[in-house]
Amino acid sequence: MKSTFHLKQVKNQEGFTLVEILMAVAILIVLIALLIPNLTGGSDKRNAAIVMRSAEGIMSGLAKYKADIGAYPAALQALWDKNAIDSSIADYWKGPYLDTPSKTNGSSPSQNIADQNIAGVIYEYKKVTSSGGGSGTCADSSAIGSNNSSGSDHTVKITAVPHETATVVRDKLGNKICLSDASGGTTDIYFIIEEAW
């Protein structure tokens, strides 16, 4: 007589298989790896890159404007809006020197640029004058306008930058920028426009 051995099949398994558990652990590891840079200052580095890239674009637009007009504008709006400049120099305006920003701050004709990625951050053109002269480079805002004969520095002032972001910018650029503590955990950054004095 032949004996047959039949395994009883379990139709309603409860619990998870080893493969399912390993997949869940793998997904958790990937999510943790994505979150760690944000928890360890990755967002500050990203914001610093945004600030530096934006300031560079604005300074380039200011240089082109000055090359055509012969002077810097009273406000950044003149870089994208011909109506924001005096009619006596309108014939020399060959802009726009900067794309129209998606967010602005202020009223026409003196609108500044509001950062669309970092809440509260504003970019503006600022001529800083000091009785001692102008600087060209500095470590903090008290040095702006202190070392050149004309007594002023042309800057792109960026207001309300989070302290941590400003620190990353300072670490990357050193004395090419000036910092000034502002209220509410923010710092103002001055990018000095390099000129031959």
TrEMBL record:
Superkingdom of source:
Bacteria
Q: Does the keyword Transmembrane helix apply?
A: yes
The UniProt keyword set, sorted, is:
Membrane, Methylation, Transmembrane, Transmembrane helix
Question: Which Pfam families does this UniProt record tie to the protein?
Answer: N_methyl (PF07963)
Q: Which GO terms describe its biological process?
A: protein secretion by the type II secretion system
Q: Any stretches that span the bilayer, and where are they?
A: 15-36
Q: Name one GO cellular component term.
A: type II protein secretion system complex
Entry protein name: Type II secretion system protein GspG
Q: What organism does the UniProt record list as the source?
A: Candidatus Nitrobium versatile
